[in-house]
Amino acid sequence: GDFSGQLLAYLSLGPIFIIVGFVTLIIFKRELHTISFLGGLAFNEGVNWLIKNVIREPRPCEEAHSTVTTKYGMPSSHSQFMWFFSVYSFLFLYLRMHQTNNARFLDLLWRHVLSICLVTAALLVSYSRVYLLYHTWSQVLYGGVAGSIMAIAWFAFTQEILTPLFPRIAAWPISEFFLIRDTSLIPNILWFEYTVTRAEARNRQRKLGTKLQ
């Protein structure tokens, strides 16, 4: 009968939905930066597991949740995951995805709205772990700090180390076989794909119209 608890329980499944979304996006887009982002999330989870097994701080109510995969709770893996995802996405939006059309109002507005949504999702998932008695406030707080630091470090590593290597990686025979691509030099991939697709559709429509005459 606890509606808030049920809602927060569903929200705490956010990391699962994000992973499924990443796998789907990689299958259909096959873009190196997206693959790197997912690799960062996986590395972040590995660091969380390592910290937990070093600190070994128990969860607040171990007997209340018999299905958890580990009895240790410091730091919260959900909190660390969500803050990594949110902070990395924030950095990507404002530092990697360059503005178009002289930074017009709507172009900036959707970035701000999306950033607020990302932070809100991270806060709600973090809060849900305390509300559902999986973690203490300190475990959630340190998870958020760890995830944020990991996101900044991985973003810097991707931009400074991996991105210059992406063109070479995309040219590998195995990358060409699996249609893996690099879009790092394209300022706004959404606008680029929209304009290219629209131009190609119009070109094909003109050719089809010519054949039917």
UniProtKB/TrEMBL annotation:
InterPro entries: Dolichyldiphosphatase_PAP2, PAP2/HPO, PAP2/HPO_sf
Regions crossing the membrane: 7-28, 81-97, 109-128, 140-158
Enzyme class: hydrolase
Superkingdom assignment: Eukaryota
Matching SUPFAM superfamilies: Acid phosphatase/Vanadium-dependent haloperoxidase
Catalytic reactions on record: a di-trans,poly-cis-dolichyl diphosphate + H2O = a di-trans,poly-cis-dolichyl phosphate + phosphate + H(+)
UniProt topology in membrane: Multi-pass membrane protein
UniProt entry keywords in alphabetical sequence: Endoplasmic reticulum, Hydrolase, Membrane, Transmembrane, Transmembrane helix
Location(s), subcellular: Endoplasmic reticulum membrane
Pathway: Protein modification; protein glycosylation
UniProt main location, coarse: endoplasmic reticulum
Gene Ontology biological process terms from the UniProt entry: lipid biosynthetic process; protein N-linked glycosylation
Domain Phosphatidic acid phosphatase type 2/haloperoxidase: 34-155
GO CC list: endoplasmic reticulum membrane
Molecular-function GO term, any one: dolichyldiphosphatase activity
UniProt cross-references to SMART domains, sorted A to Z: acidPPc
Enzyme Commission no: 3.6.1.43
Purpose of the protein: Required for efficient N-glycosylation. Necessary for maintaining optimal levels of dolichol-linked oligosaccharides. Hydrolyzes dolichyl pyrophosphate at a very high rate and dolichyl monophosphate at a much lower rate. Does not act on phosphatidate.
PANTHER family: DOLICHYLDIPHOSPHATASE 1 (PTHR11247:SF1), PALMITOYL-PROTEIN THIOESTERASE/DOLICHYLDIPHOSPHATASE 1 (PTHR11247)
Record-stated family: Belongs to the dolichyldiphosphatase family.
Protein name: Dolichyldiphosphatase
Biological classification of the source: Eukaryota, Metazoa, Chordata, Craniata, Vertebrata
